[in-house]
Amino acid sequence: MRLTMLLLAILACCAASAQDATITHTATITSLPGVQGADFSTLLDGRVETGIAFDVGTDGEGAVSFDFGAPRIVSGIRFFQNSETYYTTRYAIEGDTTGDGEFETTLAEGAEAPVLEWIEHRWEPVEVQAIRLRSVEGVSGGRRAHPCLAEVEVIGPALPADSARAAELGHPVSAVTAVRPLRRSTALIANDTPPAVVAGTDAASRAAAEALAAGLSERVGQPVPVVGEITQAGLGDRTVFAVGNCVSNPLVARLFYNWYAQEDSLYPGPGGYTIRTVTDPYPWRGEVDVIVVGGSDEPGLTAGVERLLAQVAGGELPWMLEVQSAAKPDAAAMRAATANDPEPTFAAFLTAVQDWQRWGDDAYARRAMRALDLMVETYERDPARDVPWNEETTSGPIFAAWEAFEPCPLIADEARLDYTKAFLSLLYSIPQHTSGYANLENSKLVAWNHTTFPLLGLYFGGRYFGHYHHITACDDYLAKAHATFGAQARSWKPQEDADSYVTCTMDHVTRYCLAEGRDDWVTGGNMARYADYMIGICDSRGWAAGFGDSGYSSGPGLLQRVLPLAYLTTGDPGYRWVLEHVAPGGWEDPYRQKPSERPDRFVGLNVFPLDPQVYEYTQTTPYYNEELVPSEVPVEAAWDKISMRESWDPGAQYLLLDGFGRGKHLHYDTGAITEFVADGERWLADHDYLIRNSTEHAMLSVLRDGRGDALVPSMAALKSAADLDGWSVVRTSIPGYSGLDWDRTIVWRKGRYFVALDGVTAREPGAYDLELTWKTEDTGGERLDDGRVFVADRSATAAPSSGVITVDDPDASGGRAVDLTGSSSRLAMRVALPGGEYRLHLRGTSVDGSHDSVWVRVDGGDPIPFGLAKGGYGGEIGGGTAPQAASAITLPEGDVHLLLITLRELPPGRIDRVAFYRDDTEVLAIEAEEAEALRPDDRVPVEARRFTIKSAEQVRSRVTTHESQGIAIPLCVLHQRRAEELAAGERAQFASIFFNESRDRRGQYDLGRAESGGYLVTGDDRALIALDELRADGLLCRAQVIVIEPEHILLSGATQLTLGGAGWTSAAPANVVLDLATGTMTVADAAAEPLAIGAAERATVERLLSAEPELPASEAAAGAAAATEPRWRTQFPEPGEVRRLQSADLDGDGTPELLVAQGRWFHCLNMDGSMRWSYAADNTVLDVADVQARETPGREVALASADTKLHLLSATGELIDTYQPTAPPHSQTFGDRPWILWVVEGADVDGDGLDELLTVMDQYSFIAIDQDGTRLWEYTQVAHGALDIGFADWDGDGTDEIFVSDRYGFVHGVTLEGKRAFIGYSSIGDVQFAVAPLATDRPSVIYGSSTGDLLTRGNDGEIAWRFDNFGYAVRRIRAGDITGDGSSEVLVASDAGYLYALDAAGGELWRDRAGFAVNDAALADTDGDGRAEVLAASEDGLVRVYAGDGSVRREIATGAAAKLLCIPTPGAGAQVAVATGAGEVVAF
Asked: Which residues pair with 915 in a beta bridge?
């Protein structure tokens, strides 16, 4: 595909102008003798690997003729012989100048004709009817005439009709040789037919249309009809005027959907108008125009009609784009906006055209032309330029913008031809980026964004180039677009299961359907189903729940993206209400259809069924590289999401449950609680990107017999659901999960608490490790009480600053500033000001738009977003009046407050100072580096903000915290584990109650086992909750879910209720509510026969509810064991995580030093733990390597840092050099800047005896840097950062290849020249790897990801074996001789808590439950017996030492989580150094 695109791009650009173009495709082609199959299309397809051969049985000289059907000027020919068996050695180029069929004129001759090369002749232009290429002498090595030809290009001036003629002849057209014919005026009488006026549906546009028709009738002398429907207008046959906007006029709406027009109820605004010529619009074409007279109100439309009529002259209108609007920028603002050169990208062109379409000013048109000039230059430098991501994702609007912009009178035809060719080059580069492109014309089901982003470009580009330039490939483009979008339009959801990615594909299909006029997308209900779903997955603030690959949403962006078109097309006033409700400051309605109405259908319990086409796709097609395992859930029981919403109050409780754990951009989260929000706080969260593990979601993970080799099933079944007064209940089931069936029941006491009952039933006997996880944001206030009560307390305000460093910065106000270096960083400031209203200005800076905002909290209140300047501080330092960027802020009552600044996006971010203003006067300024923490006697008003989870079952609990690569918040996870030996049919149960406290929610609740069965809620509420059946003192309930409260019995999926002597039964399950005071009963929301209930029956209920529940015994949280006395312990002056721990003999004295990367520091330690020297970078040190990069004695230390620099230090700690490599963002060719550097290693790449430095930049580039900073090569495929670099001789040539693992699931092998030697994929996530010979002398790559996949590829590149533990990250892989047999085996350290020893074929030698999670493993001889021992470091703070057979020889307790191992001196008396979670290094 790449070669084809290259050749097509060359063809598209080979002719510099219409005076020097390829015109072969306009000729009728014949040959003598005949050509095999009489098919000459391969002569014109732009591919030298295809061509023509004369028929078998012919011999001698062959000739090929090109008859143009009319005289044409020709000035040259190029041809390519592609056969070394049949070729000409002497030939003639002859012309028929008279049209009599005789080739009487010799234009050129050749006595040499090389094979597999282009041959070219030029001559003075001559007019011919036909031209012939005739072989005079040649070679025929078989039974055919000579020559075989791959391509023939006749050169001459192109004519506008050339591509149309080629299409008529059936020749492939691949290049643009002439501009599209354009008119600069519009004839009122077209095709002998007077114009028509399409009126809007409202009185204002109807009156304006009538006035316009009357004025036109006077000017053309014929009646001009006014019509109300598009079908009545005669579009394509006559000139048509459309009066109104996209709300009032159906024709303007259709143009609006095709990006020809922009008029709505707000634009051009009060009294304003637009006059817009839309030249030959799709789908009517016909070389006639539509003229829009747009306006938002009657005065504007009236003025627009008057202006248009004044422009009519001689029966014609000039081409027009005129805008009168009070919102139009003034001349100075437009000059400022267009002063600088645009970026060299079609995206910059798109922005300029959108501004030009909106405001009609030539300044924007010239900017658009300048952007296209830059793109023409770009293609001249690189004809095979590939489409970057920002153009791929906007390719649809880019091509639509070109069609709208091309008629602009400022564009000269020569430039227009160059621009058109550039757009064709763009179009040709898109198919290779279109996922599944080869078979899209057969699409039957659903699509995803990597198909529909580029496919929308192929649709709009195919429309344009297919119609105006007859480009042959456009037929395929359009066939694929129609099939794919048409199939997707039958569903309201795509393949995607990630909140924002859902909107990508559905936005594309919405645009396609509206552009095509496919009303069934709206009338069939899918537009509304899609919009309802998007509302359902957002909380009552409109913030998205964050399932699948997503960010940490902090605004209603998804709803603002989806609902406007849904409101416009469906007219549902509920969509308008939601938009007004969630938008800060309200939503200004551009459509004004009807008053808004609060959509209370979204309050309470809502079940969103799984789309049937998504179901079918999932049952028949695997996602990514996983094995297809069809779900046992029938389509009628499958559900996508379930929402529970207390109300539309922004502080309302909201919970989202996920029933679908597949899809593109998936997470393996079937059955998970995606989010729980209450009182403006996210208490349970997903919101992660590239982190798919079940253990990173609020759900169950399962190991059976020590393994988790099966993913959570794709779908959950709905067993029952009920939305009742005061309560909602839902019971779901996930069958076939690692030998179990898992059912999850959620009972919601509205406004108070939730009860989650998670039960498993074994299908197969086994030893099961069950883990229930709950994920929340880590704000430093999480704790575990008595092993069963988890509390996340966000009301505490005394938390000091953490994760911040002070840096020198000459641009900062005091010469210094503070960097927030990690997602968990926080900057705390004591603010001594009285309560009241202020304006706060925060002066800070960031790298780019992914890092440019922070949260500010005052006294633990709601977070307030603040932006940071990009690439510099910008603006004044302050001290005078309040800067424009200052934001209103309220300090609560009191004289002292705590200001807490945390990152809202990715780290890092830099803060210089904050300043408070009152009445435009600065009253307090705080330099960030001088920020003071709260003093012990400070009294700060604190609003209670707490979240509690309590377990009713005996579990082993642990709380962990970590940072994720995907989102900018630190995370805290509660792990509840149970180990159960289950026989088939046996059950195990988790039961939890969770709730939040705030100023308005004060309830305290607990949950325990009830003696009668089920679970009893106690505290500030009493309720009994049971499943399936409850029997007690004359009470019998059979239902999926049973809830008994003092006033009611509530049953979901019930078949029987008996109380005393009264009873109700039903064969069909139903939801039942029994009023215990009156005996009235409702069944399925309808009144039923009441039950006779007396004092005895009520007493039975009272006894059940007043019983004391059985609570699980208190259990100390699983934590580190009592510490073993170390040889030494080194603590560092500044806190920070130890990211690297390794050893090297830097000074050559035979004794190694320990190299420690800790926080922003590098420390060099002696073997007794004493500090040799330290060095501070400007941000976190991510990697360290000992290298020989200089000729001076001793080794050097190279550091890679988040400060975007490589630091090269001497063996004694002196700074030798720093390197700050720059590069543009991935998939972009401009905008160089520095990036975070993830790893560093040294290797002699160029053979000069010194190491070059190897590093990976955050924008995917793996580079080699010479001693003087020269970049020797760049490999641009290491995605989302890197973890490790290693070396191995992969191809057996005696030279090592370089291996690097990324954070996107890949291991890459690269030669010393920077070329790919190996690539292997596991699953998206952080990748660990080892390269070693297994079973053969050639190396294998063993690699696994943080998703739990682990596999080995042999030297043939094929998968040799897998050893997966889905849900549990692979933390370390080591290869070496474990058993002492002289061959390599494999060690795997897993988050499952197991250390696995595997043989060369992937078979399990042994495993050990080494702790909660195994963080590191090592192989080393620690006792001098010549055989390696195995060491494992666990999260429990244990280091175990094993013999090769897995028996434990020693256990060391480090006192804190053991993170990294280093054995600098193997052998007798070996020392083991351990980096701990406390940020220290200890040795044993």
From this structure: 841, 925
Cβ-contact 293, 304 below 8 angstroms? yes
Helix (H, G, I), strand (E, B) or coil at 11: helix
Structure tokens at 817: 């500033």
Candidates 1317, 1328, 1414; CA nearest to 1357 is 1317
* Phi, psi (deg, nearest 5) at residue 672: -75, 150
Alpha carbon of 45 to those of 38, 50, 430, 473: distances in Å?
15, 8, 18, 10
Pairing type for strands 836-846 and 869-870 reads: parallel
Q: Residue 429 has what pLDDT?
A: 97
Contact residues for 679 (Cβ-Cβ < 8 A; gap 6+): 651, 945, 996, 998, 999, 1000, 1001
Cα 1059–Cα 1061–Cα 1065 angle in degrees, nearest 5: 65
pTM of the model: 0.91
Give the per-residue pLDDT at 905.
80
* Distance, CA of 268 to CA of 360 (rounded, Å): 11
- Nearest alpha carbon to residue 1405 among 1451, 1342, 1447: 1447
Q: Are 419 and 405 in contact (CB under 8 A)?
A: no
Per-residue pLDDT band at 876 (split at 50, 70, 90): low
Residue range 448-495, pLDDT digits in tens:
999 999 999 999 999 999 999 999 999 999 999 999 999 999 999 999
* HEC string for 213-245: HHHHHHHHCCCCCEECCHHHCCECCECEEEEEC
| Three-state secondary-structure class, residue 628 | coil
Characterise 640 by phi-psi region: left (phi > 0), alpha (psi -120 to 50), beta (else): alpha
DSSP string, 790-825: EEEE-----PPPBSEEEEE-TTSTTSEEEEE-STT-
DSSP 929: G
- Residue 966 pLDDT level (bands cut at 50, 70, 90): low
Question: Which token pair is 371?
Answer: 């952007």
Amino acid at 1286: G
Strand partners, 723: 728
Nearest partner of 251 among 583, 517, 455, judged by Cα: 517
d(CA 106, CA 91): 11
| Model confidence pLDDT, tens digit, residues 1152-1190 | 999 999 999 999 999 999 999 999 999 999 999 999 999
Omega before residue 283 within 30° of 0, cis = yes
Sheet with 1370-1376, strands from edge to edge, namely: 1370-1376, 1385-1390, 1394-1398, 1404-1409
Residues across the chain: 1484
Query: What is the rounded (10 degree) CA torsion for 143, 146, 152, 157?
Result: -140
